[in-house]
Structures are given as structure tokens and as C-alpha cells.
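As a warm-up, study this chain.
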Amino acid sequence: MSFLEVSELAKAYGDLDAVDGVGFHVARGEIYGLLGPNGAGKTTTISMISGLLKPDSGSVQVDGKEFWSDPVSAQRKMGVVPQEIALYEELSGRENLEFWGRLAGLSKGDARSQAGVLLESLNLSERARDPIKKYSGGMKRRINLGCALMHQPKLLLLDEPTVGIDPQARANILGFIKGLVDDGTAVLYTTHYLEEAEELCDRIGIIDHGRILAEGTLDELRKRLGGDQVFVLEGEFEGVDPDAWPGFGDQFTIIQETARQLTVTPRSERHPSECLRELLDLPITVENATVKKPTLNDLFLQLTGRELRE
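Now compare it with the structure written out below.
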């Protein structure tokens, strides 16, 4: 049974449909990635699920119950890590954790105990008494995550939790999140980092302009491209019309075309060498040809015609 169930969620601001009929579910012990560029509707979706915004239509169910029938009870079951760091700079790491724990309803003793556990788990025990203003960006992100976990929620909503930090700090946070899932926590993870979604998420929903364009496991999404190879041709493609090449459209699907590059995937399963021979025989000079495994960005290109990070 899904711990979080989102159905036909919608939110508009005037003529702008920030979220338009979004639906997905997240099970216990699962990481569901909501992947899309900035402005795609990820943060608005998180805000509606957590109760910061009320949807214009649609429903959110947490642990089998409609969110707005008892929002206080639903919010007690979830922890939210916002994209913007929500910490008090003058307070220490421990004091921030204990403060947010008390707000979540923990007793003073329980808040102190849980803060100690999290500081150890987040590898921050030695800096527990230092004020947040002396923390690095990665350390602040870890404490920010810890504040959402003080009341041990069964649903964790993470909105771009690794923005602006170095690779090592990012790896620390991703490893910690994997441990939470092993304990049965349901995680909704929004990001525009392809590598994070590919490494971390059990299932992925690709969102753009407020709509889910595709959903599935990484393998399922790759298969939507029609094969397990992507071919990238480099040359002079300015003014070229690949659709005019005899038989080309029957054999290949264009993912992206620019003045200097043509990215395609075969329409049927064939050996890469056979595909390369056909591509090198095209009526144009190909300066370089490479083959790679399809990525989420390739799928996003096919669905939207633009790069994920544009």
C-alpha cells in the first residue's frame, strides 16, 4: 500500500498553471524522484503535499487518509526539507535540532536524545556546539535534513536538498537518505540533478510545465527511447533536413538536432555496428560518431525538445 498518494493535483496563479493534474504514489521504503528543470512545478507540488499551499483541485492522501481531513495528523507523519535552508545562524547545530524537535512535539528530554542520535548519524557530533554561521554549506544541509527527522517521520519530502554543495557533501547526504529508506521511510525527492535521480531513486517522474511527462523505473524510462543505445553525430547540420533522407525516419528517431550535432536512437533492436554503418552512409559528412547508453536527459530532450537544466 502506498504511504503517499497524490491524484490530479492542480494549482494555478492567474493564467499560469504551476501544477496541472499531477499524480503519483510513494510506498514505504521507496524513493520516488520528481525530476525536472527549475520552474517545472516541483516545489509547488511539495508545498501542496505538505500543506503549505492548498491545491485548487486534486487530493493528497497520507497513510491512507485524506490530508485536508486532518492536516495536523498528516503533518506529524512527514518531515519536510525545503530548498532554502531553514536554520537559525546564531544557534548551534544541536540547538537548532532541539528547537525544531520541540516544535514537532517532542519533550525536552526526547529532543535532546534524538538530537544526539542525529548528530552522530550525520557525522556532526564534533561540531554540535558550534553556531550554524560557522558551518560549511554541506554541514548546513545536513543539519537542515536532521531538523526534519527529529520526530522520526515515516514520510520525508526533500526539495532539492543538495543544491550548492560539493560532491563529497552530496555523497554524504545521499548515503544518509539511503539508510532512511532501509528503515522503511517513504521519500519524495525533487531534483534537477540527473546523476542523483539515476543513483538514488527507485522510480522517477519527469515533470515539466506542471505536468508529469513520463514515469517509471530508470530501465522503464530508458526503454521509452526505443532502444538501449543513443548515437551522437557531429558535423555541419545547419540547414539539413534529416526527414528528407530516404528511409532515415523508418530506422531512427531524432532526439535532438542542432547546427553541429544530431542525436538519434534506433527504432528497432540492432547491433550498434550496423547502426553506425547506416549513419556513416548518410548523405552528409559526419566528423565524429559516438554511442552511449540513454540517459534521463535524452528522454527529457525527446519529450520536451530542450535540456533538463535549461
